């Protein structure tokens, strides 16, 4: 088992501690020969967790300009959980005679009231949190494919749902302990009751804030579906800009409110745990209470990491869907290094498209060149215009001006004929709309 370590240690030390603890637990589980499915599943989860922790340690060594300190609490708790569960296995096998060949009491193992499957889900939460933090870092350092972007969104959503479910489970366990403490504490009953009511009130207001934030997100999503990009740089009308600024102001205010409520919640829980410790005589019960408190804080921290990763994804990703017909120039370009997720779609023989990452100067020069090319080839001021087939050049005939757009004189059987109808795209077989 790895040596105990505290939050004062550096991030690399915590990552190494968690990695060594997960490897030690994996080896201990493997040393037993009886491996039912739930144990095989645990081994797979431990192997995946060790891989993610190893990648994290390598990243910390290689990159020094990105703050990953939010992972300190999850890493510490991950390492401690692996070490404590390893000790539970050793104690349980010792009570069964210490024979690693015949040990079959896996079902008796409990950790914070959960069985092996519950512990495996706990490890999955640590793994997902660390994986999201690493992916968030990679996206900010480089680009990502459209498929990778969608997979990452699903990962964040799934991890957040699982973590919130776990937080509810921990809350239920703490509620039970606090209720038992109130029954046995005597003179502290009144104070604990007040703290319990304060905790419930804080939970309710946090829920209200989250519901309001989700409602604002839905309004912005509906705006996107109705044709507005709901992004400040693309808003065209004054009402759109005012609505966007108002919604963003609400969201920013909600973020600050939620942060204050969560700090207050932590303070209330800490005080309730302290009261419950003094009323609990069993060292095992005190240890379980401390673990639940640490796990409650870790889960909240992990949810916050997922939330920030989702926010970074929105800030660093531009979603663009261009569609045009006829003579059009389409740009799907990032000059700020943002990840681009979208499509350039155009119908027409003179549609020109640009996509990728360019400097601002390069984009301006390219835009000027393409505009100039379009202007010169539009027949403006008597300039020549090429036939779509590229076969014959004809001067612009003024009789077509102001009617159905630019016209072309077509050659048929060696005889020039004038056409005042809509020009034909002979290469695609479509008639561009005037």
From TrEMBL:
Residues 391-400 have a biased composition (Basic and acidic residues). Residues 2-210 form the Azaphilone pigments biosynthesis cluster protein L N-terminal domain. It comes from the Eukaryota. Coiled coil: none annotated. Residues 374-387, 414-434 have a biased composition (Polar residues). Pfam families: PigL_N. Residues 374-434 are annotated as: Disordered. This is Azaphilone pigments biosynthesis cluster protein L N-terminal domain-containing protein.
């Amino acid at each position: 088992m790895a040596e105990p370590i505290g939050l004062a240690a550096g991030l690399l030390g915590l990552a190494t501690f968690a990695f060594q603890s997960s490897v030690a637990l994996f080896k201990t589980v493997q040393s037993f020969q009886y491996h039912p499915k739930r144990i095989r599943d645990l081994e797979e989860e431990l192997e995946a967790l060790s891989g993610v922790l190893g990648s994290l340690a390598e990243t910390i060594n290689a990159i020094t300009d990105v703050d990953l300190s939010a992972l300190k609490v999850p890493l510490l708790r991950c390492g401690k959980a692996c070490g404590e569960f390893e000790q539970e296995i050793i104690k349980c096998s010792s009570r069964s005679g210490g024979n690693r060949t015949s040990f079959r009491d896996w079902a008796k193992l409990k950790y914070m009231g959960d069985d092996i499957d519950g512990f495996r889900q706990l490890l999955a939460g640590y793994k997902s949190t660390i994986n999201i933090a690493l992916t968030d870092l990679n996206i900010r350092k480089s680009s990502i494919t459209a498929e990778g972007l969608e997979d990452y969104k699903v990962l964040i959503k799934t991890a957040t749902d699982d973590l919130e479910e776990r937080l509810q489970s921990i809350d239920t366990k703490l509620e039970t302990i606090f209720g038992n403490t109130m029954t046995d504490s005597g003179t502290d009953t009144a104070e604990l009751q007040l703290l319990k009511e304060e905790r419930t009130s804080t939970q309710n207001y946090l829920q209200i804030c989250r519901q309001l934030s989700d409602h604002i997100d839905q309004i912005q999503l509906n705006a996107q579906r109705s044709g507005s990009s709901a992004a400040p740089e693309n808003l065209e009308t004054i009402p759109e800009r005012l609505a966007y600024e108002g919604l963003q102001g609400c969201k920013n205010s909600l973020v600050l409110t939620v942060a204050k409520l969560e700090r207050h919640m932590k303070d209330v829980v800490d005080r309730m745990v302290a009261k419950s410790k003094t009323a609990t005589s069993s060292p095992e019960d005190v240890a379980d209470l401390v673990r639940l408190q640490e796990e409650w804080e870790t889960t909240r921290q992990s949810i916050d990491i997922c939330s920030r990763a989702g926010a970074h994804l929105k800030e660093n990703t531009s979603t663009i869907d261009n569609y045009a017909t006829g003579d059009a120039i389409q740009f799907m370009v990032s000059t700020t290094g943002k990840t681009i997720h979208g499509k350039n779609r155009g119908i027409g023989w003179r549609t020109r498209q640009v996509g990728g990452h360019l400097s601002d100067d390069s984009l301006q020069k390219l835009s000027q060149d393409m505009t100039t090319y379009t202007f010169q080839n539009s027949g403006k001021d008597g300039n020549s215009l090429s036939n779509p087939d590229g076969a014959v050049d004809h001067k612009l005939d003024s009789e077509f001006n102001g009617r159905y757009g630019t016209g072309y004189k077509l050659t048929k059987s060696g005889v020039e004929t004038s056409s005042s109808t809509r020009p034909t795209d002979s290469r695609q077989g479509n008639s561009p709309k005037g």
